[in-house]
């Protein structure tokens, strides 16, 4: 049985992440673990400001701590309730350790992490992608599904293929996790330089490979700048896509999945991203 981790900030629960995690765990017949990172250094209030404003600051901090505890407990209860209603197998991990360090350790024993793209695990709001998400993606030990703040049931899979091993690795990992996709349309999108023709890189080999993993697939080849063409493709479609992409960091094997590709997609779209790099 596969092991999926859904990651939550109990003080700002992402109900969208709950919904995506349940849909995908049910589809993959996976055990879903709700990971609530209750980092001991993370609070909803500023300790220095409380001390500055209140003479009896100890009792005020005690009240605020209790309020945070209740909010975190309520988040866990919501997750458990939704999993029970969906009839999936689940459990809960709660940790007061440093959030990023704890999650990287847990990723060694997981098949997939599902996390909201807005997560910071601080009381401050940050631009997307947040520092937490960037650092997680740069050093995670399993595939990651980064999801938007609004849940939309997935009804189209887009595989980004550049001819290199990283994009193929991501497709393999997605296929291994979710099996042969039979009910959802799948498109393989490749962006080529304007000077190249209409053939996929490694055309025969990739088509043989894909046919064994996906029952029905559409091949789409565009020409131009990858970032522009991918965004244009996604904005033109009305389906609720899930995008599968490989390298997060630039490598010698990848012609166009540079470090900003996942960042751009997180910034410019509300599309779930499955990211896996070997």
How can the largest sheet be summarized?
10 strands, mixed
Name of the CATH homologous superfamily of the largest domain: HUPs
Order of helices and strands: EHEHHEHEHEEHEHEHEHE
Helix content: 40-55%
The structure class reads: alpha/beta
Q: How many angstroms does the end-to-end distance come to?
A: 22 Å
Question: What's the helix count?
Answer: 9
* Reported CATH architecture of the largest domain: 3-Layer(aba) Sandwich
Strand content: 15-25%
Shape: elongated
Radius of gyration: 20 Å
Output the CATH class name of the largest domain. Alpha Beta
Count of the domains: 2
Contiguous low-pLDDT stretches (5 residues minimum) are 248-259
Largest sheet, order of strands side by side? 3-2-1-4-5-10-9-6-7-8
Give a structural overview.
The protein folds into two domains: 3-147, HUPs (Rossmann fold); 156-275, Rossmann fold, CATH 3.40.50.620. The protein has helices at 15-28, 47-53, 57-86, 99-107, 131-138, 165-178, 203-213, 226-236, 260-268; strands at residues 3-8, 31-37, 90-95, 112-116, 143-147, 156-160, 186-192, 217-223, 241-245, 273-275. Strand 6 (156-160), helix 6 (165-178) and strand 7 form a beta-alpha-beta unit. It has 278 residues and is an alpha/beta fold. It is built from nine helices and ten strands. Helix 1 (15-28) runs parallel beside helix 3 and helix 2 runs antiparallel to helix 3. The chain is elongated and about 75 Å long.
